[in-house]
Amino acid sequence: MISKQKSSPQANFFFYLEDTLNKNHPLFILSNRIDWQLFEDAFAPLYCTNNGRPAKPIRLMVGLLILKHLRNVSDESVVEQWTENLYYQYFCGLQQFSTDSPCASSDLTHFRKRIGEAGIELIFKESIRINGKDSDDSDVSVDTTVQEKNITFPTDSKLHKKIIKKCLDISKKESITLRQTYTRTLKKLSVDQRFRNHPKNKGKARKADRKVKTIAGRLVRELQRHLGESSVYQRFFDLFVRVLAQKRNSKSKVYSLHEPDVVCISKGKEHKKFEFGNKVSVVITKKTGVLLGALGFRNEFDGHTLQPALEQIEKLTGKAPKTAAVDRGYRGNIKIGETNILIPKPFNDKKQTQYEQKKLRKAHKQRAAIEPIIGHLKTDHRLGRNFYKGIVGDNINILLAAAAFNFKRMMNKWKVSICQFLNIIIFQIILVENQFSKNLFHSKY
Question: Is residue 11 scored above 60 in pLDDT?
Fold first, then answer.
């Protein structure tokens, strides 16, 4: 049930945050620029009105989601820091300081599921609006990167061991007596699997790998016989069978049991041959660097991601860009709708003038500005490793990271403008003091 709005006409004995905090603080300014009523109107229909426990305020939950990716912290950390930070509390709609915890960290998970991708996209759209005229650019730059999932480096041997562990857990939970648990056998096989890169141990390690796979298959089949095909664990058994059947060169491999949708992506990096997660398309304005688009894919060819990315921009901003500068990974695209695609290629001296060549060369150089922005998204706003579950979690993390980048950009801009204003005032004061001291000197002598 949605909570009722509190009104306090009587003055409080304690101080109000709005009268106490520094009004030039970027977080204070941002809290007054965001249209919170937009989220109230959009998310209120997702709650029932007549039964159940009153929910946490919508502004509080949206504010916590923004702060989490703005400060690059976990759900637990942002809830803990909220009780210590007055600016966090004012940003989330409080008028007086509160020492109570705003909510449980799991409430943020439930709220993300409640509003879904559409609600997170609304937050991203608001972050574009906050940037004002800076986001109104007809030329954009597009690139793709990889959002890694929170999994270990996958090997088939690891997956087989996890299947055995999960089968033993299911048998214990359902009180099923297995013919053999293979506990002591697996310990011996683990010893044989060590130091596999040594020439003398390669054969022994491979033999142990095959034995572990055989044991995993035996346990899965035995549990299927005991529980039947209509059991609640059938979807787990189907996944286990799929893992046991896959080979080194199989397509659509499973790399993680708890995240089966993860794909293996090779971007040609020298220091990291393969990345396990999903592909992300990022679109920025060429002159100002505002993020206009952020969209998740599995492992499509870069050229196939361009049209959905441009459609997202048109959906969020209301107009399609005139030109989009891309790298050679997008070859095959010349024009999509009303947008001209600029791909680096050798110049044709017969058709292009020197001015046109210079203009194209400058545009391709400007496209490189998207690389540090992707770096900031990964290191500062939680795009480097995704902890949310499933494909929906991939898309939510991408949009929240992009929204946090846009909010942070404006906060930095306000910080610079405030510093410049203070420098002007200090300079004027110094001039007045120098003039006063000079007049005082002349009056004495």
Answer: no
Q: Please name the amino acid found at residue 237.
A: F
> Is residue 8's pLDDT more than 70?
no
294: phi then psi, degrees, rounded to nearest 5: -150, 115
Q: What is the pLDDT of residues 428-443, one digit of tens each?
A: 777 767 776 766 656 6
Predicted local confidence at residue 143, as pLDDT: 96
Per-residue model confidence as pLDDT tens digits over 335-356: 999 999 999 988 877 788 888 8
- DSSP-derived 3-state class of residue 303: helix
DSSP secondary structure, 5-62, as one string: PP---SPPSSPPHHHHS-TTSHHHHHHHHS-HHHHHHHHGGGS-SSSSPPPPPHHHHH
pLDDT in tens, 164-190: 999 999 999 999 999 999 999 999 999
SS3 263: strand
Count the Cβ atoms, other than its own, within 10 Å of residue 236.
17
C-alpha 376/C-alpha 203 separation (Å) is: 45
Cα 347 from Cα 268, distance rounded (Å): 26
- In terms of Cα–Cα distance, which of 85, 112, 72 is closest to 31? 85
Sorted by where each begins, the domain ranges of the chain are 1-130+402-440, 132-152+263-387, 156-245
Q: What pLDDT, on a 0 to 100 scale, did the predictor assign at position 361? A: 87
What average pLDDT score do residues 67-90 get? Answer: 96
**Residue 98 to residues 16, 17, 22, 30, 39: CA-CA distances in angstroms?**
11, 10, 18, 21, 23
User: How many Å apart are CA 417 and CA 24, to the nearest integer?
Assistant: 10
Contact, 203 vs 192, CB < 8 A?
no
Amino acid 208: pLDDT: 96
**Record: fold of 132-152+263-387:** Nucleotidyltransferase; domain 5 (3.30.420)
Token readout for 165 is 């562990």
Beta carbons of 72 and 25 less than 8 angstroms apart: no
Supply φ then ψ for residue 84, to 5 degrees.
-105, -15
